[in-house]
């Protein structure tokens, strides 16, 4: 199902939780809504599910306006953060519940429960109650219950957050498999960027109720639309250099000049230059400035170098072959790979280049 | 989420049967009595009255029968409540920390909760029988003279009190046990390590920690015993004891209605009883609060 | 650390004594119900009947019309339980799951009204029943108890413990609020429903003052009233009276033995609520 979201907004009291979000989700896509807590991602999901009514804008399912259609009539599947399984019903009865409400004939019900249970692999537990299942199994049952009525849209609210780290990795893969097999348009809320990056076809990055950037995960990382996108994604966080850009040269607050970090001809009074650590090179053949190596942290195959450039500190990800301990305390020529350098307006956070 | 101000119509639909029933059989009578109590010379057949005023209250308070009723009710309450609470607390503190045979004890001690007081009252009537009742037999075995429990005005009150305590004990024990079980075992363990005896533990730990529950149970028993009335039916065939020795406030109200058809006085007497109980309840609550503040 | 053996023996001895006193009237009733008129009045009292005579029970049931009373009591109690359960479930659902203007005030009023004893309201209610022409009917004995503030408050508290996300989940599953009530809330709260039903069954079975007022013929009397009239009309024949009392008491004793835990829980929450 194709979903169009137009200028969607929701205020609680006077505080806007979601504001002016527009986006289009294509049929069969796996979408993540990603953002820090309080960014409005769960409100977005609840509005898609009809659990919360928007205060502005419209939602269209395959061109039909469903903005005012209540949850029970939207035909969506929903997986809750705490699963919300009915504690008094067995696994089979939990999965069957939506079909029983719909008064689907008994034989068909049994067949579809079986199918859904097999899809999420909870077949052996059909007669147990939720309290007798592990977190991962409850999770699977919740997904089966959401899928059993063949929803045109599957919504998941941080479904992996209550699982332990190993199970979470396993369920990521499972979710992808289930989504592909069920061929259902899926929207998934998470605050975990790795989860969003590894699972989704495209990710909606939200901040303070606004949609910051909606693109495939790689583009989000490589080509962030705003400073927020650049800082939220990536580990370690992107390095930030503040200063004035004059014809491509950056002057930091203490007067240090980084030459040609931005394209020639670009002049910005107050800029923030974001530099990914993997694009920093030490002992560069095309140095932009000189920087002092303060510390080296060996993390397996890689080394993180803490570097001081004027009044700024940078973290550089370098290969073990490039550096050794003797560099600590010395000044080295430092360079940047142009692909990983983004220039933002310090005021608005908008990307300039 | 599901809840908002606009769910009024649907909420009302769910509430409606409850509201209708409660309005007719609880709210309406209360409001009606509140009004009738202040209507002078109310006529139950024509529903006419001369004016609003306090004459009903005046008449009730001046009525020597009401004074007698109030005295009897107060006497009954003053004996039954403390006796029930002391016995109940003692038994409950034994029961609370015993696991072996507990279902048996619970069954035996709580059985009167589910039995009709009229039916079991008949059994007590037989036990109280002056000629071949069990109680007089027990008295004779320890060399005491038989007592005419049900026909001698001096012995009517004791008979009613014994039955009253027996009836009130199960509820009292049950609430105390529930409260006692929420007191941490560690206090008792600590006290035992400090060498406190069972009796010391009871007075130094149980009683102080149970303060608020004892207050609550006292109020509940007070409310109950101030309404003493239906116990008179099995024991005394509905008469207020020999020589009106058990003429209680609720009996007075009952008589104003069934014999005098004076709804105004009955309502006024009801309000006085309710007010007295309410005052004692509030007093208890205030005492509780100051006690808690001091500690 | 365990109590010393001596302490435990003393505790058990005291509890056995207390149990014996509380239990004795019941035992005495059952034994006496089998006695002959002579055995009833012997001095010193005779503990056991010489033989098991069922004649007293037969007399109570047939001549005393306790068969009719039993049926009436059952009809009244069953109706009261079912109807009050229905009205309380519906009201508690609204109070627990909906937010509407005046809800807090309504709850506070309900608690205040619950404190007024039924004995005080009996007169006006009697008048209502007279106005409606229902005197001496079973309906009159049922109507005032079709709603219960206590049951409603107990159920409201229980329903409040149902997580709000279950309601949202059920909406996603297509359930209306009506379906959610009957398919999720009610089955989830079965223990509370049992407690509330048992409490109202006991109260209805043992009701005395109200049925005494609104009934005046054998056909419509319930057990407690029948028992009271048994003594006033037939004179005191204790062996028969004990058999009749047993007929009134034994069914509730059986209920108690079967549902002891629910009754104890129910009574203690009832006590804490007031």
UniProtKB/TrEMBL annotation, chain A:
Pfam families: ABC_tran, TOBE_2. The keyword Nucleus does not apply. GO terms for molecular function: ABC-type transporter activity; ATP binding; ATP hydrolysis activity. GO terms for cellular component: ATP-binding cassette (ABC) transporter complex, substrate-binding subunit-containing. The keyword ATP-binding applies. Residues 3-233 form the ABC transporter domain. Keywords: ATP-binding, Cell membrane, Membrane, Nucleotide-binding, Translocase, Transport. Transmembrane segments: none annotated. InterPro entries: AAA+_ATPase, ABC_transporter-like_ATP-bd, ABC_transporter-like_CS, ABC_transpr_MalK/UgpC-like, Mo/tungstate-bd_C_term_dom, NA-bd_OB-fold, P-loop_NTPase, Transp-assoc_OB_typ2. This is ABC transporter ATP-binding protein. It comes from Metallococcus carri.
UniProtKB/TrEMBL annotation, chain B:
Residues 70-284 form the ABC transmembrane type-1 domain. PROSITE patterns: ABC_TM1. This is Sugar ABC transporter permease. It is a multi-pass membrane protein. The chain crosses the membrane at residues 12-38, 74-96, 108-127, 157-182, 202-223, 266-287. It is found in: Cell membrane. One of its GO terms (biological process) is transmembrane transport. It comes from the Bacteria. Belongs to the binding-protein-dependent transport system permease family. One of its GO terms (cellular component) is plasma membrane. It comes from Metallococcus carri.
TrEMBL record, chain C:
Keywords: Cell membrane, Membrane, Transmembrane, Transmembrane helix, Transport. Pfam families: BPD_transp_1. It is a multi-pass membrane protein. Residues 70-259 form the ABC transmembrane type-1 domain. Its main location: membrane. GO terms for biological process: transmembrane transport. InterPro entries: MetI-like, MetI-like_sf. One of its GO terms (cellular component) is plasma membrane. Gene3D superfamilies: MetI-like. The chain crosses the membrane at residues 12-31, 69-98, 105-126, 138-159, 193-213, 241-259. It is found in: Cell membrane. Belongs to the binding-protein-dependent transport system permease family. This is Carbohydrate ABC transporter permease. It comes from Metallococcus carri.
């Amino acid at each position: 199902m194709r979903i169009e979201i137009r200028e969607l907004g929701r205020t609680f009291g006077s505080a806007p939780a979601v504001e002016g979000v527009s986006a289009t989700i294509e049929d069969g896509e796996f979408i993540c809504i990603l953002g820090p807590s309080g960014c409005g991602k769960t409100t977005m999901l609840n509005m898609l599910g009809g659990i919360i009514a928007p205060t502005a804008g419209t939602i269209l399912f395959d061109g039909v306006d469903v903005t005012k259609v209540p949850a029970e009539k939207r035909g969506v599947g929903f997986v809750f953060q705490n699963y919300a399984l009915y504690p008094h019903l067995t696994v089979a009865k939990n999965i069957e519940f939506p079909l029983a409400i719909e008064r689907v004939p008994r034989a068909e019900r049994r067949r579809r429960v079986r199918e859904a249970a097999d899809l999420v692999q909870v077949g052996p537990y059909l007669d147990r109650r939720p309290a007798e299942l592990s977190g991962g199994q409850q999770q699977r049952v919740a997904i089966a219950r959401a899928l059993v009525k063949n929803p045109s849209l599957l919504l998941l609210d941080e479904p992996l957050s209550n699982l332990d780290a190993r199970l979470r990795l396993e369920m990521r893969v499972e979710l992808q498999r289930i989504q592909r097999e069920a061929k259902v348009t899926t929207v998934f809320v998470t605050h975990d960027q790795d989860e969003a990056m590894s699972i989704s076809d495209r990710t909606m990055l939200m901040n303070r109720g606004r949609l910051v950037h909606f693109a495939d995960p790689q583009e989000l990382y490589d080509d962030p639309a705003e400073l927020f996108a650049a800082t939220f994604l990536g580990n370690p966080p992107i390095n930030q250099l503040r200063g004035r850009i004059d014809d491509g040269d950056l002057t930091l607050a203490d007067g240090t000049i980084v030459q040609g970090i931005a394209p020639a001809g670009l002049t910005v009074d107050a800029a923030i230059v974001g530099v990914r650590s993997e694009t920093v090179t030490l002992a560069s053949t095309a140095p932009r400035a000189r920087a002092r190596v303060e510390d080296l942290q060996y993390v397996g195959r890689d080394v993180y170098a803490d570097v001081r450039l004027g009044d700024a500190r940078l973290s550089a990800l370098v290969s073990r072959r490039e550096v050794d301990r003797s560099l600590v305390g010395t000044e080295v020529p430092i360079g940047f790979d142009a692909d990983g350098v983004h220039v933002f307006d310090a005021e608005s956070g908008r990307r300039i280049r | 989420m599901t809840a908002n101000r606009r769910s009024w119509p649907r909420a009302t639909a769910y509430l409606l049967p409850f509201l209708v029933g409660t309005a007719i059989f609880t709210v309406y009578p209360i409001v009606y009595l509140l009004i009738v109590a202040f209507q002078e010379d109310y006529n139950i057949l024509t529903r006419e009255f001369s004016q609003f005023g306090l004459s009903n209250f005046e008449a009730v308070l001046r009525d020597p029968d009401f004074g007698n009723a109030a005295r009897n009710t107060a006497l009954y309450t003053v004996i039954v409540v403390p006796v029930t609470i002391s016995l109940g607390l003692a038994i409950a503190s034994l029961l609370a920390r015993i696991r072996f045979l507990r279902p048996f004890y619970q069954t035996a001690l709580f059985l009167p909760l589910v039995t009709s007081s009229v039916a079991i009252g008949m059994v007590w009537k037989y036990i109280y029988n002056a000629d071949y009742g069990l109680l007089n037999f027990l008295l004779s075995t320890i060399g005491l003279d038989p007592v005419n429990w049900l026909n001698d005005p001096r012995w009517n009150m004791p008979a009613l009190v014994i039955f009253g305590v027996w009836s009130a004990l199960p509820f009292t024990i049950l609430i105390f046990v529930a409260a006692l079980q929420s007191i941490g075992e560690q206090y008792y363990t600590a006290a035992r390590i400090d060498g406190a005896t069972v009796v010391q533990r009871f007075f130094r730990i149980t009683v102080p920690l149970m303060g608020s529950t004892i207050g609550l149970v006292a109020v509940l028993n007070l409310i109950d015993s101030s309404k003493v009335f239906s116990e008179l039916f099995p024991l005394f065939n509905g008469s207020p004891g020999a020589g009106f020795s058990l003429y209680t406030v609720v009996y007075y109200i009952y008589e104003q209605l069934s014999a005098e058809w004076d709804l105004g006085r009955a309502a006024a007497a009801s309000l006085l009883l309710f007010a007295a109980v309410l005052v004692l309840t509030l007093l208890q609550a205030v005492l509780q609060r100051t006690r808690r503040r001091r500690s | 650390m365990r109590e010393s053996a001596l302490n435990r023996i003393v505790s058990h001895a005291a509890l056995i004594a207390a149990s014996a006193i509380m239990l004795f009237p019941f035992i005495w009733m059952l034994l006496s119900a089998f006695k002959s008129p002579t055995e009833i009045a012997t001095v010193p009292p005779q503990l056991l009947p010489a033989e098991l005579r069922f004649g007293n029970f037969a007399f109570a049931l047939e001549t005393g019309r306790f068969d009719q009373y039993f049926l009436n009591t059952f009809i009244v109690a069953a109706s009261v339980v079912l109807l009050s359960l229905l009205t309380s479930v519906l009201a508690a659902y609204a109070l627990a799951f909906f937010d509407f203007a005046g809800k807090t005030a309504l709850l506070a009023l309900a608690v205040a009204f619950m404190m007024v004893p039924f004995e005080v309201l009996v007169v006006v209610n009697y008048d209502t029943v007279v106005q409606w022409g229902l005197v001496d009917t079973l309906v009159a004995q049922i109507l005032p108890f079709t709603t219960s503030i206590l049951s409603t408050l107990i159920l409201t508290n229980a329903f409040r413990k149902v997580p709000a996300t279950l309601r949202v989940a059920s909406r996603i599953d297509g359930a209306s609020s009506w379906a959610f009530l009957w398919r999720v809330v009610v089955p989830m709260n079965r223990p509370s429903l049992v407690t509330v039903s048992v409490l109202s069954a006991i109260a209805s079975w043992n009701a005395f003052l109200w049925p005494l007022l609104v009934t005046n013929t054998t056909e419509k009397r319930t057990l407690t009233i029948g028992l009271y009239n048994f003594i006033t009309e037939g004179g005191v024949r204790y062996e028969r009276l004990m058999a009749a009392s047993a007929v009134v008491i034994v069914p509730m004793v059986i209920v108690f033995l079967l549902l002891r835990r629910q009754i104890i829980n129910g009574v203690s929450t009832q006590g804490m609520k007031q």
